TrEMBL record:
Belongs to the glycosyl hydrolase 10 (cellulase F) family. InterPro entries: CBD2, CBM2/CBM3_carb-bd_dom_sf, CBM2_carb-bd_dom_sf, GH, GH10, GH10_AS, GH10_dom. SUPFAM superfamilies: (Trans)glycosidases, Carbohydrate-binding domain. This is Beta-xylanase. Residues 338-444 form the CBM2 domain. Residues 20-333 form the GH10 domain. Residues 1-21 form the signal peptide. It catalyses: Endohydrolysis of (1->4)-beta-D-xylosidic linkages in xylans. The keyword Hydrolase applies.
Length: 444
């Protein structure tokens, strides 16, 4: 029975100190914030100014085309690793991670494969042999594999690709199991486009990932390509990333670019700066977001003008390798944030339910600062002999009248503006007033 609710808020001060990030390589800024910043590259261009920037500014490389099926297995059972080896060797020489892209896709397949006539059993074997060969060759050298790329239709159903049509959804599970066997250390990703917002396609991906995990399929991460249109960063991007992360997988932005109608105006470039910053912020706000990869770092190496005539300027550097406002947007968003001083939070305490001798209370902590909280503790004094008997979503201990509640591993991180709630049951007699004050502190 709810007989009343008490509400009390303690608000403490916030502190944040952004530092200058102008001259620090983007890869270092990203690493200091716990994510990687990567780029797709064209292996043949990795010399001169292009190579200098790719090596110095990015912590992860994705071969734009060199690891695709048509590139590595141009004839059945005959492999050509020249292009892929070049990118991997460059990454190793520059202390960079590699995102392998991609083992199973419906596009950029060799003619012998698409033109052949195969039974489902033959196709399955061709697929698993290919995965075993490619993931096996780069065992221990590729950090993340896009094991299956673009498996879904726009409505979230299975795409009737060469693979989906012949084998149904089971090809995805088989692909992941083969990749895990070939390279147990690599993080295995499902990757798709137009899944960035909450919507039909991402709902389909969400349900697919859930089904795969329930079957014990080794899916480690979900990639969101994020080929975006100027001014249209989805408002639900962060929420969407977070709901996947809560399934127990990593998430990553894998192919970010933001296109506009050419010629680019100053206003459009300013909007693009804000858009890049918004995508970076969404990743930073989600603890399991591993990193952000731009799909080409210079406008001279972007797929957009070829595929969307009249559009382009989609990357952070212009065609002459000069940084654009988008570059500053990334750097400013990744700028170091001094850890918040203790107390950058507010707390509310509410008795939601009360009966003879017992009550339930909910305590909600809000991060009122501009930096993420990494761990928290809330303390209060029970004023009338109340005792905590059972708690959830926090470790709650009571000594005399003093109560201390601290985070659990899964709710330690609270993004700026975010809240985390925990609750407890307590006993009371006589009266059940709320605490006079609650304090919160940050840190693990
Ligand atoms: O290699 C040939 C070259 O020999 C020929 O002279 C030239 C003439 O057009 O074409 C070259 O092949 C091109 C290939 O890129 C390598 O540069 C293809 O025409 C071109 O279609 C191909 O485009 C790639 C595209 O995937 C194909 O789907 C883009 O570079 C690549 O950035 C793009 O990447 C995809 C991701 O893999 C998956 N997500 C979407 C993303 C954008 O489409």
């Amino acid at each position: 029975m709810i007989t009343g609710a008490a509400l009390l808020t303690a608000v403490l001060t916030s502190v944040t100190t952004p530092a200058s990030a102008a001259d620090t390589p983007l890869r270092d800024l990203a690493a200091a914030r716990g994510i990687y910043l990567g780029t797709a590259v064209t292996g043949g261009k990795l010399t001169g100014g292009y190579g200098d920037l790719a090596g110095a500014q990015f912590g992860s490389l994705t071969p734009g085309n060199e690891m695709k099926w048509e590139a590595v297995e141009p004839a059945r059972g005959t492999y050509d690793w020249t292009g892929a080896d070049r990118v991997v060797a460059f990454a190793e020489a520059h202390g960079q991670q590699v995102r392998g892209h991609t083992l199973v896709w419906h596009s950029q397949l060799p003619g012998w494969l698409t033109g052949g006539s195969w039974t489902p059993a033959q196709l399955r074997t061709l697929m698993t042999d290919h995965i075993t060969a490619e993931a096996g060759r780069y065992k221990g050298r590729v950090d993340h594999w896009d094991v299956v790329n673009e498996p879904l239709n726009e409505d979230g159903t299975l795409r009737p690709s060469l693979w989906g049509a012949a084998l149904g959804e089971s090809y995805i599970a088989d692909a992941f199991r083969s990749a895990r066997a070939a390279d147990p250390a690599a993080k295995l990703y499902l990757n798709d486009y137009s899944t960035d917002a909450v919507g039909a396609k991402s709902d389909g991906m969400y349900a697919l990932v859930k089904r795969l995990l329930a079957q014990g399929v080794p899916v480690d991460g979900v990639g969101f390509q994020a080929h975006l249109v100027l001014g249209q960063v989805p408002a639900s991007l962060e929420t969407n990333l977070r709901r996947f992360a809560e399934l127990g997988v990593d998430v990553a932005i894998t192919e970010l670019d933001i296109r506009m109608t050419l010629p680019a105006t100053d206003a459009e470039l300013a909007q693009q700066k804000a858009d890049y910053a918004a995508v970076l912020r969404a990743c930073l706000a989600v603890t399991r977001c591993a990193g952000v990869t731009v799909w080409g770092f210079t406008d001279s190496d972007s797929w957009i003008p070829d595929f969307f005539p009249g559009q382009g300027a989609a990357t952070p550097y212009d065609e002459n390798l000069a940084p654009k406002p988008a570059h500053a947007g990334i750097a400013e968003t990744l700028a170091p944030v001094t850890p918040p001083a203790p107390g950058v939070c507010s707390v509310t305490y509410a008795v939601s339910s009360q009966w003879t001798g017992g009550f339930t209370a909910q305590v909600t902590l809000r991060n009122t600062g501009t930096a993420p909280l990494n761990g928290w503790t809330v303390r209060w004094t029970q004023p009338a002999g109340q005792r905590v008997t059972q708690a959830w979503n926090a470790t709650v201990t009571q000594t005399g009248a003093e109560v201390t509640a601290s985070h659990l591993s899964y709710n330690a991180a609270v993004p700026p503006g975010g809240t985390v709630a925990f609750g407890f049951n307590g006993s009371w007699s006589g009266t059940n007033p709320p605490p006079a004050a609650l304090t919160c502190a940050t840190g693990t």
